[in-house]
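Researcher: Structure for this, please.
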Amino acid sequence: MVFWALTGAVTLAVVLILSRQMLRKSSSSDQAEITSDMRIYRDQLKELERDIERGTVTEAEADRAQLEISRRLLEADRAAKARTVASDAPDMMTRGTAGIAALVLILGGFGLYWTLGSPGAHDLGLKKRIALAQEVRDTRPTQAEIEAQRPAWEGPPAETPADYLELIKSLRASVEKKPDDPRGLDLLVQHETNLGNHIAAREAMDHLITVKGDEVSANDFARQADVMIMTAGGYVSPEAEEALRLALLKEPRNHVARYYTGLLFAQTDRPDLAFRMWRALLEEGPDGAPWITPIRSQIGFLAQAAGVDYTPPTASETPAGDTAQPGPTAEDVEAAQDLSEEDRGDLIQSMVERLSERLATEGGTPDEWARLISVLGVLGNTERAVAIWGEAKEMFIDHPDALDIVRIAAKQAGVAE
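Model: Predicted structure, token format:
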């Protein structure tokens, strides 16, 4: 009510001021000017009469001067009457115009607020806004509730190679036979994700966390949250939040966990916390990291919502890469030992070729280049590993930190000093 009372008072004051300007009769400054001119001319006539009595002017001169002064006095009188008429009480048209302007101002202003504003919204102090945000966070849907609303998996993409599908089928059968094998579960999570079968990937990831037990790492928890969030269509559920919390407990600077925690804050009406977390990630880089692009596209809005004037750092030329279909790790190669020799070779080669082609055409993160070199080293393909190491040196020549990541893998593969 206080807001509406203040708004009404301000609007009424504006209407009254405008109406007064439109309806006023005359200008006091104009009247003062007219009265002054006429007084001067009258004084000049009296002075002329005294000059005639004293004999200081001739009769002919007096007649001419009296005639000129009288003419000016009459003109001043006519001007005064004309201005008085022009500024006199306005006619019906002027009053109507003033009334229409008042209605437009009042109704238009309130109409715009009703359309663009938030009628009925309560004034929210900082503590109350934080409390409401916490309530949103505490009462949001669970992972199971969100998954129940998601559309069913329609199968792999039409362009997926048939031999790749056969390899995945073999992998599923292998995991079914050995459900507690962490290496097989790890591969299954990766490739179910590649096919878009997110619920199956999430189930395999949950089981992988259970199987690892005390050996689970911060990256495992971050990966579990990542799979949950993908399955929920980008929504950070309470279960994903718990996985992120555990990841940060083990490794407070884990990039993936920090990115998704920032996303959680953004989704639960805490842009201030989301901005601080994402700003640190953006400024730490590197630009090739997969979280940089989504942060850069949204941090301007977050800064505005948080009330911060912020200009993000300029992006470097480090390729961002595409992490939708990551390539194999050295552990993936070892995990494939559970498949038949033929299937194992085909699966590993397929993953290597897919990653190699993507890095050659689209670029990628330092970790992906390092992964490819490591796998080639495990496979004994030293010549190709040397070639990839050479390309990586050219790619990251201006980014020594990124190059160091790849150099470590190249040393382990025996292709760098």
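Researcher: Any notable elements?
Model: Residues 317-328 have pLDDT under 50 and may be disordered. The two ends are 75 Å apart (CA to CA).
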